Amino acid sequence: MLDPTLIRAEPARVQAALGRRGMAAEAVQGAAECDARWLARQAVADALRTRRRRASEEVARAKTAPGAPGTDDLERAGREAADELRQVEADLAHLEAERDEALRALPNLPASDVPEETTVLHETPPRARCGLVRHSPTCPPQPAGRRRKGEGGSSGSLLHWDLLKILNLAHTADASAGRGFLIWRGQGARLLRALAAFMLDVHARDFGYEEVRCPSVATREALEGSAHLPALEEKMYALSEPGAEAPGQPQSAAARATAENVTGGSRRRLEGGAGLFLIPRAEPHLANLFRGQVLDAGALPARFVASGPAFRREADHGGAAGRGLLRLHEFPTVEVYAFCRPQESEAELARAVEAATKILALLEVPHRRLLRGARSLSHAAAKTIDLEVWAAGAEPWLGVAALSSFTDYQARRTETRYRAADAKPRLVHTVGGAAVAIPHLVAALVENGQEADGSVRLPEALRPYMGGLDRLRPPEPSDARDAKG
Question: How many whole angstroms separate alpha carbon 427 and alpha carbon 3?
Fold first, then answer.
């Protein structure tokens, strides 16, 4: 959330900065007007508190002074001030909620070095291996017969959705979960586990991140703290409150008893209706890790790395854009998060990018680094570095990492501060993001690692995590009959 004092002091600068993100000036003006009404009412409340306090003091003096007149008028004045104050405080609470809602709707200010359009900072070009030539948008055209955009071909390398089927790594979970969910099998399940363990080790061993494991659900309050709500609510899975009855569907006695047992007899309704959401990432938990606390400056930076599932609703694009690993509703990811002092946030972003880049280099996948343009920034981000990998499918460059500086935007929502020696508490800065989302990485690994004999070569850095396995191979004919497309 933006600092309301900044909007009061420099409204033109805030409007210009948010204008780069496509935010209309009226939104900033609306938030400023809400804040002005709150300030005006706050001044009235302060005056009433002063009046009430003075009346109380005068009553006390009158009662102790010898021969003092009655205090009825003074006490009446004090009661009137208290009654007025109660009404004003009720108005204040309403105005504060209105102001905060308007402020939450405003995204973070883009950093001064964020360009208007996304810019490629660095690219490691695809390379040839075993006669299978890799091509990027800046390389020569692909040879005839190469499969691309879901088209068949008698020669050239295969696309990852073909390889998933041939190697029996994963198949759709249409019968059990619906479109957009996968069941990973055998070598595929092992590959996911190996990639997560490898990336966690790199972050912890080489870059000083502490490993954490988070729940797969989060409260509305936590998601508002990380700024995923309300901006992304339509893309999230909301869970029904334990024991709640769907409209027109009375709950059975057994179901009620089960809900009571699970919740320990509590039927507490969480604020906002549905109590919990499936997490879009671990970030809501990490952002709220020190909610309401004042950290010691000596404990900063505090760095964390987490692996786990991420859930999101995706439109059914159909065709090649919805095939394979391109548009999943649930996928595993590894992400980082850091709390730091303001002067450290740029260095922490660089550290997170360096860690993700090292992982991609060790995994031998062609990749590029981009500085995201102002209009493409997420709601909470002031600056984002994206990492993409080359996979010659329907979308040749696939995003695998999005690492952002959030400045104090999330910390203001979660009231996370730090204090240096003999100093007033200040809001921390936070840095975090996906590093690395695994499905797109798998697509790049299998497409770039495929060999002429139909196997997929695994990078050396990953082999110890795969039990020494150096390549993925199609299953034997006796095992392949169970493979599903």
Answer: 11
Q: Which of 209, 205, 211 is nearest to 340 (CA)?
A: 209
Q: Which two three-digit tokens encode residue 331?
A: 């996928």
Angle between the N-to-C axes of helices 186-207 and 345-362, in degrees from 0 to 180, rounded to the nearest 10: 140
Q: What is the CATH number of domain 4-104?
A: 1.10.287.40
Task: Answer for the pair 383, 429: CB distance below 8 angstroms, yes or no.
Answer: no
User: Which amino acid, residue 108?
Assistant: N
Beta-strand relationship, 294-296 and 417-419: parallel
| Count of C-beta atoms within a 10 Å radius of residue 178 | 10
Q: Does domain 119-240+251-480 have CATH number 3.30.930.10?
A: yes
For the record, the structure tokens of 162 come out as: 């073909």
* HEC letters along 142-158: CCCCCCCCCCCCCCCCC
The amino acid present at 242, given as its one-letter code, is P
Q: Mind listing the pLDDT tens digit for each residue in 2-49?
A: 999 999 999 999 999 999 999 999 989 999 999 999 899 889 888 888
**pLDDT at residue 154, as a whole number:** 31
Average pLDDT, the chain: 83
Does the pTM exceed 0.85? Answer: no
Secondary structure class of 331 (helix, strand, coil): strand
Q: Kindly report the length of the chain.
A: 485
What are the boundaries of each domain within the chain?
A: 4-104, 119-240+251-480
What b/e sequence results for 204-224 when a residue is b if at least 16 CB atoms lie within 10 Å of its CB, and e otherwise?
A: eeebebeeeebeebbbbbbbb
What is the DSSP annotation of 63-90? HHSTT----HHHHHHHHHHHHHHHHHHH
List Cβ neighbours of 368 (8 Å cut-off, separation of 6 or more): 120, 121, 122, 123, 124, 387, 388, 390, 397
CB atoms within 10 A of CB 398: 24
